[in-house]
Amino acid sequence: MAETVFAKILRKEIDARIVHEDDQCVAFHDINPQAPVHVLIIPRKELLNVNEMADEDEQLIGHLFKVARDLASTLDLTERGYRLVINNGDHAGQTVAHLHVHLLGGRRMTWPPG
Ligand code: 5GP
Fold first, then answer.
1. Which atom of ligand 1 lies closest to the CA of 96?
2. 35-48 b/e with 16+ CB inside 10 Å = b?
3. If you measure from the C-alpha of residue 14 to the centroid of ligand 1, how many angstroms do you get, rounded to a whole number?
4. In a 10 Å sphere around its CB, with 0-12 CB exposed, 13-18 middle and 19+ buried, how is residue 83 labelled?
C-alpha cells in the first residue's frame, strides 16, 4: 500500500495536534476543519478502508467508536450531538488511503451530506 500522510503522523514524522493515543489508534485535529471540532481517529494498523476490514478487525473498529464516544465527551459534544463520518472510497470522497473516522461537532449539521 502507498505511503500516506497518516502513516507519517503515526510515526511522528510530521506534526499533528494529537488528542488521544493508545496501542490501537491515534486521534488528532484535522488540518482543514469542517466544524468547530473536527478530529480524525485512525487505527495504527494500515487499513485502506472498510473494504479491507478483516473479521479479526471487528474489535479494532469498535475501539475507534469507543474512542470517538470518549473524545466527544472530553470535547463537550455529547449533549448537543456530533457526527461520525467514514468516507469509504472514491465516490464518498476519501482522499487519504488509511481508514479514518471523522468526529465533527460544535455546530448544527445538515442532511443529506454533499
Ligand atoms: P477524507 O477526505 O479522506 O475522508 O479525509 C481526510 C482528512 O484528512 C481531510 O479532512 C483532511 O483535511 C485531513 N488531512 C489531510 N492531510 C492532513 C495532515 O497532514 N494533517 C492533518 N491533521 N489532517 C490532514
1. 3
2. bebbbbbbbeebbb
3. 13
4. middle
Cα 37 to Cα 52: distance, rounded to the nearest angstrom: 28
DSSP state of 12: T
What DSSP element (H or E) covers 43?
strand 37-43
What predicted TM-score, i.e. pTM, was given to this entire model? 0.98
**Measured from the CB, is residue 90 less than 6 Å from ligand 1?**
no
Domain boundaries, the chain: 5-105
Instruction: Give the span between the Cα atoms of 78 and 82, in whole angstroms.
Output: 7
Give dist(CA 59, CA 35) in Å, integer: 28
9-65 pLDDT, tens digit per residue, is: 999 999 999 999 999 999 999 999 999 999 999 999 999 999 999 999 999 999 999
- Enter the CATH code of domain 5-105: 3.30.428.10
